[in-house]
Design a protein that fits this description.
Length: 578
């Protein structure tokens, strides 16, 4: 009878051990699902249209078509960047796909997958299988988060992903069985690619050196002075070339903002750091998250450095410390360069691709430090519950944030979709008068010129609208009047009116990409009068009939589909007697 409690405990322990063997399969399934959902969002919500900074690359394709594209043009400074290697990818993909920007988004997804695979390879040192897969799952909750929606749906962000691919790939090479001399060669090549891809790419030279010296099977080789000097010389030469003819972008704020306003600088820095963990769009909560994350990272690093004589601990920890440092230094660079733009920019989702690796680092360092600390100690049930609670809270926070992040992703998609509608009418409607602009208004007349260049090359799909007569772009089924209605016309004065109504795309129940108001020319043709591309089912547009010469004026409304460049009549019309 006395043995029964111990037998029960033994049976409970056996059941617990059996349950652990299912964790790798469950984790792998969930990771595939996370990645698969991001791929779905890219295929469903990615839009084939140049957006924002991508318009700077129109010259590449124009010169490529003329046979005048040069190395110097690909290598030239763009903002603070020398993104030579991303430029090669853009030109190659544009050439073989007629610059379908969705292929750039696919490349971004593949780069994220490669980074995830590298994280898996780096985590193979030390932990039990079930624990490695549990940690890997938590890392992928961040890597494949829809929270960095700007990166998933904006092809130009390839330049943001290449540096971390280079850093993590080089770390994998360090732990490989490759000859030490080839390790040095390949890691230097990756550091060069990283440097000439993004403004923070140079950090690859910095974070890899401690990995060479403190881990891997070739520490003795990398500690030789000729090897260290070769690495340092490569970094110096690469940096010198980077800054040849370098000029600070005129429209960027002063770099001394962080010195003049140190508290603002700290707040901005912590906002960038904490942004990957945000659940709600509150800068105070995000700053708090960033503070907790930084404190956790520093505490873990201090513990490891206090036990630096433990070679196994250093061997297992160094890559995660350096990945965390990569995110911290990148956040500091962003803060110095962007503080003058205000705090809201710190919360931009595109910066999460830089900062998220601090979260990944803390996840793995926490496990490594806990295992080292617990050796020879009896872990109490209270401590086990505390650890389980922390893990559960982290996973729960990501689950809660997921639908909010997806909602933001869809809003970003809608913004670009409506901007595309405005772009297709740029020959008739100035970009400055369209909502959800495809490029900042200060780009001026250049946008129209560049759009016509792309159109002539066949790189806009669908092409620009070539007529202001709506019957010329009327879609099949327009006469069924199932795209919405023109409900009301309000007169403000003799020439200014407000039209309003309802419009949606059949089957999807989403707002039309734009509403077009027309007037009849007396010959049965509907001519473009006004254009509205707000993201709303219930539309309202103010317009003027001062320049319209016919009388009476018959006003009609049309829904516009930017994916097909087709217009569809809305039910109803109004007559204005001048």
């Amino acid at each position: 009878m006395l043995l029964l409690p111990f037998l029960a405990q033994g049976q409970e322990l056996m059941n617990y051990q059996k349950s652990l063997k299912y964790i790798p399969a469950i984790a792998l399934s969930l990771i595939v699902m996370l990645a698969g959902m991001i791929l779905y969002y890219i295929l469903r919500y990615g839009i084939d249209v140049p957006y924002m900074d991508q318009w700077e690359y129109v010259g590449f394709f124009e010169h490529l078509a003329k046979g005048t594209l040069t190395f110097g043009e690909l290598f030239k400074q763009q903002n603070e960047y020398r993104q030579f290697f991303p430029n090669i990818i853009y030109v190659f993909l544009g050439w073989i796909t007629d610059w379908n920007t969705r292929y750039e988004m696919i490349v971004i997804f593949l780069l994220a997958c490669l980074t995830s695979f590298n994280i898996y390879r780096l985590a193979k040192h030390g932990n039990e299988p079930w624990l490695k897969w549990a940690l890997f799952f938590m890392a992928n909750l961040i890597i494949f988060s829809p929270g960095q929606y700007e990166n998933w749906l904006f092809g130009v962000q390839i330049e943001y992903f290449i540096p971390i691919v280079c850093v993590s790939s080089a770390m994998v090479i360090v732990f490989s069985g490759m000859d030490a001399r080839w390790k040095l060669v390949f890691c230097m090549l990756l550091a060069i690619i990283s440097t000439y891809s993004s403004v923070n790419g140079f950090l690859c030279w910095i974070v890899l050196l401690p990995v060479f010296l403190l881990s891997g099977n070739d520490k003795t080789f990398f500690k030789k002075w000729p090897v260290v000097l070769t690495w340092i010389a490569g970094a110096v030469v690469t940096l010198i070339i980077y800054f040849i003819d370098y000029q600070k972008p005129a429209h960027h704020p002063s770099l001394d903002e962080s010195v003049v306003h140190p508290l603002n600088a700290l707040k901005y820095f912590l906002s960038v750091i904490g942004n990957p963990l945000r659940i709600v769009h509150s800068i105070d909560l995000i700053v708090f998250s960033g503070s907790v994350l930084m404190i956790a990272y520093l505490a873990l690093v201090v513990y490891i450095l206090r036990h630096r004589k433990n070679l196994e601990l250093m061997h297992n920890s160094i890559v995660w410390m350096m990945l965390g440092l990569y995110s911290i230094m990148t956040a500091a660079m962003i803060m110095v360069g962007r503080l003058g733009f205000g705090f809201e920019q710190a919360l931009s989702s595109r910066y999460t691709s830089f900062a998220l690796f601090l979260v990944v680092a803390v996840i793995y360092l926490t496990s490594i430090v806990f295992q080292h600390w617990s050796v020879g100690k009896s872990i109490t049930s209270f401590q086990k519950r505390g650890i389980s609670l922390l893990l559960a809270l982290f996973i729960l926070s990501r689950v809660i944030a997921y639908p909010f992040d997806v909602k933001e992703l869809k809003k970003y998609h809608a913004n670009i979709q409506h901007a595309k509608a405005g772009l297709l009418f740029i020959s008739y409607i100035p970009n400055q008068e369209c909502v959800n602009k495809i490029y900042p208004s200060d780009f001026g007349h250049q946008l129209q010129i560049k759009a016509k260049v792309l159109d002539s090359l066949g790189y806009l799909n669908p092409p620009l609208v070539k007529s202001n007569v709506l019957q010329d772009i009327e879609g099949v089924g327009s006469k069924e009047l199932k795209y919405g209605s023109f409900d009301k016309l309000i007169k403000l004065n003799d020439s200014i009116f407000i039209a309003s109504g309802y419009s949606n795309i059949p089957k999807t129940n989403e707002p039309s990409d734009a509403i077009i108001l027309t007037y009849e020319d007396g010959k049965g043709k509907s001519l473009l009068l006004a254009f509205d591309n707000k993201d709303t089912l219930y539309w309202k547009k103010m317009f003027s009939v001062e320049k319209v010469t016919v009388n009476p004026i018959i006003i009609k409304a049309w829904a516009f589909d930017a994916n097909t460049a087709k217009a569809y009549r809305l039910k109803g019309s109004c007559i204005i007697n001048k």
